[in-house]
Design brief:
The chain is 6% helix and 61% strand. The chain contains 1 helix and 10 strands; from the N terminus they run αββββββββββ. A 10-stranded antiparallel sheet has the order 1-2-3-4-5-6-7-8-9-10. The protein is globular and about 45 Å long. The relative contact order is 0.12.
Length: 180
């Protein structure tokens, strides 16, 4: 069982949240700002998301993202569903739309499956297809995430293939602090 008796109460609560065991509506806000070199305009983004429980296992997700790059701004709406399968597995599917987008995809669909593994870890696999004005992009990603009482550390290997181009790979290391 994921929530073993040996875990502290704070760690049990963090894992329960990650496994969608807590009930209630969740609201999230994210802001980002990237300074670019060479006198180019900064990149900025703001995202607001809401997760609404449908029952004890499923959640409906919705969000709005505003992104500005190179002095061009796009707005994107997203909608998704997340579900648990037993105690250790979860899956989700989402779709995004940004009518007339210049920098974000005009639409995309993403499917993901995840599993908790021993040692307070999670492993997930994600596939995404996105259609931009001038190119389509297929993407596959694998992530392993380690949880602690206040932090999460994740490594992601991503492979992407734009139309008529070979697969390209990237690595991401993310550290997050959980607030209660």
């Amino acid at each position: 069982q994921v929530l073993r008796a040996g875990l502290g109460v704070g760690r049990q609560a963090a894992i329960a949240r990650l496994l969608l065991l807590e009930e209630g509506t969740r609201l999230s806000v994210a802001l980002s700002h990237e300074n670019l070199s060479g006198g180019r305009p900064s990149w900025q983004a703001a995202t607001v998301g809401i997760e609404q429980p449908l029952d004890g296992r499923r959640r409906l997700l919705a969000g709005l993202q505003v992104e500005e790059r190179f002095d061009t701004q796009d707005e994107q709406f997203s909608l998704g569903l997340v579900d648990r399968i037993g105690d250790n597995w979860s899956w989700g599917i989402s779709a995004d739309a940004a009518a007339g987008a210049d920098i974000l995809p005009e639409w995309s669909v993403t499917a993901e499956v995840g599993r908790t593994i021993p040692g307070d870890r999670n492993l997930s696999l994600r596939a995404r297809h996105a259609e931009y004005q001038s190119v389509n992009v297929d993407m596959l990603a694998a992530t392993i995430e380690q949880y602690s009482e206040k932090f999460r550390v994740a490594y992601t290997l991503t492979g992407s293939q734009p139309t008529d181009i070979d697969w390209r790979f990237s690595h991401t290391l993310r550290v997050a602090h959980d607030y209660e």
